[in-house]
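Hi W., the succinic acid complex you wanted:
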Amino acid sequence: MQSPMPLVVILATGGTIAGTAAAATDTTGYRAGALGVEALIAAVPALAGHRLESESVAAIDSKDMDLATWKRLAERVAHHLARPEVAGVVVTHGTDTLEETAYFLQRVLAPPKPVMLTAAMRPATALSADGPANLLDAVTVAGTPGARGVGLVFAGAVWAAVGLRKIHTLQTSAFAASDCGPIARLEGGVLRAFRDWPQGEALGLARIAAAPDAWPRVEIVLNHSGADGRLVDAAVASGARGIVVAGTGHGSVSQRLAEALARARAAGVRVARASRCAFGPVLPHDAADLEASGELSAVQARVELQLALLA
Ligand code: SIN
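Structure:
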């Protein structure tokens, strides 16, 4: 007997992939999150042969992604993954904060099944919209036996969540990862894997049980010429419990910014060091240095610190 097609659940959150513009030539002046998930699926005739379920979790531009939506999304992903008949989940999302959501889901769920985010740089109404092919590829990966973890399927490549970065404002190849290439590529719908699927220990949904307005605030501060640390003092004064510093180079900060960060630590604020460089890790100075953010970008380090402070 032939085994049935894998069942994939598509959870929609909005983004340019669901965006509409007044003209097919308009790729920047559009409304993100305007189309429902059924319309996204209907735009891909090749999905007709797939076993799919779909659900709308949100319909937003991802610049407005918030903790309440993250929490609801994590709960819905976990719900569907717990169903034995579900092979994997696809999340449609805006590109702008996708690396934060992907990292959040990986840290909270570290799923033993694939959870593939996908997105688009051009709205659904554009000439040569990139969303339909990305969605088809994401469904293919989410239904692939042996695939696991949270990733991004975009422009023919599969990226792990950890270290993922949006690197271009307009081009359709808009993502990369620090120091390492994609996990896999898709050519004509055929998956060619180069590296292991992401693994990790899940923090679990209990970690994010608190009401979102009770989550600790974590701010990002940049080192730059003339950085004097006043933003750090302001963040501490306004109740931040954590600060990520996007330092220069290997996470370095100016003298005055270092002094402000020392004042913040003395006040009980946790500090994490990332870099404003596009690529490369920030490594610990020694074994006792717990501030270095490794492969994480500053925005992913912010998610990590917030989840740590929730413990
Ligand atoms: C968004 O992030 O929701 C808008 C931009 C995009 O999806 O490319």
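The domain at 216-310 is CATH 3.40.50.40 (Rossmann fold).

W.
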